[in-house]
Design a protein that fits this description.
There is one protein chain. This protein is mainly α and 309 residues long. It is 61% helix and 5% strand. It has twelve helices and two strands. The protein has a two-stranded antiparallel sheet. Helix 5 runs antiparallel to helix 6.
Length: 309
């Protein structure tokens, strides 16, 4: 190849036969390389800051969050140091919660309290604290509360004590019988439970609790004292001992809202009749006025016709 292209190859030097020829490049010191690297880093950083500013992103967002968390931690630590200096480490160690979800327990004791309430009801009957044949409002609430909590265990409880009362007789049996009759009268659904009628009692005991309005319906009343103080209170509504009667009364009562306050009381019927009579009289006066206008118009028309040539 060398002879064909007219290139003269020199002979190998002494002791370096067959060695590779090393090409020497430009030399760079460590200081110059560090300076070049620093410039490149500054250039890349300026490019990143320009791009982050363009896209609206903060390159130091994580650092700012860490600084805020560190400041909050320092503040909490300062508060804890004050508490520890005031109360001591033993107090703080003693109030550390030791709750474990595995140790949590849920207690449902309604099945047991209903037995106690029922026995208290029987005791009040024996001592004549509760006297038949009527029940007070608190006693009625207790009866409904007993039935709402009753279950099949309560049924077995009544069955057991009924057998005991039947065997003993006397006042205990009399109180139990009167209490059962009273409960069945005030709450008819309690009858099958007290009579130990298994099939209907199972349906009643399996039903969910129900809210029953015990208090009698109230009517608003307002009074003004001699010194001008306005007093408002609610009193039992006359003729409506329960909400059933109240609903029936509202269904058949006419609208007397325009008759004033006196029409809705005991004289409501008289006020309504007075209003209807007055309204009828006004209607008749209006009709007579229309007739007079019509007569005057006819007379004017006749006079105009007579005066015409």
């Amino acid at each position: 190849y060398a002879s064909l292209n007219g290139v003269t190859l020199g002979g190998g030097g002494g002791g370096g036969g067959g060695g590779a020829v090393m090409m020497a490049g430009p030399a760079m010191s460590g200081e110059a390389l560090a300076g070049l690297t620093k410039k490149q880093d500054a250039f890349f950083r300026s490019q990143m800051e320009a791009l982050s500013e363009y896209f609206g992103e903060d390159l130091r967002e994580g650092w700012h969050a860490a600084e805020a968390a560190r400041a909050a931690g320092d503040e909490l630590q300062a508060e804890l140091d004050v508490i520890k200096a005031e109360l001591g480490e033993k107090f703080l160690d003693g109030i550390v919660p030791k709750f474990s979800r595995k140790m949590a327990r849920t207690y449902a004791s309604a099945w047991n309290w209903v037995k106690q309430d029922y026995m208290q009801f029987l005791l009040d009957m024996t001592q004549e604290v509760i006297k038949p044949p009527t029940l007070s409002v608190p006693s009625q609430k207790l009866v409904h509360h007993i039935l709402n909590r009753a279950d099949h265990r309560f049924y077995n409880f009544i069955e057991f004590y009924t057998k005991i009362a039947t065997a003993k007789g006397g006042n205990y049996f009399q109180a139990l019988r009167e209490a059962g009759y009273m409960l069945a009268r005030e709450v008819p659904s309690f009858g099958p439970v007290w009579m130990l009628d298994m099939e209907p009692a199972n349906k009643i005991l399996s039903a969910p609790p129900r809210y029953v309005a015990i208090e009698p319906p109230a009517a608003p009343t307002t009074s003004i004292s001699d010194d001008g103080v306005i007093a408002y209170k609610e009193v039992p509504r006359a003729g409506c001992p329960t909400f059933v009667e109240y609903a029936k009364e509202m269904a058949r009562t006419p609208d007397t809202s325009r008759l004033g306050a006196g029409a809705a009381g005991a004289g409501g019927d008289a006020g309504l009749a007075k209003f209807q009579n007055k309204n009828a009289a006004s209607q008749k006066e209006y009709e007579r006025a229309l007739e007079r206008v019509a007569e005057a118009g006819d007379a004017a028309a006749s006079a105009a016709a007579a005066a015409a040539p």
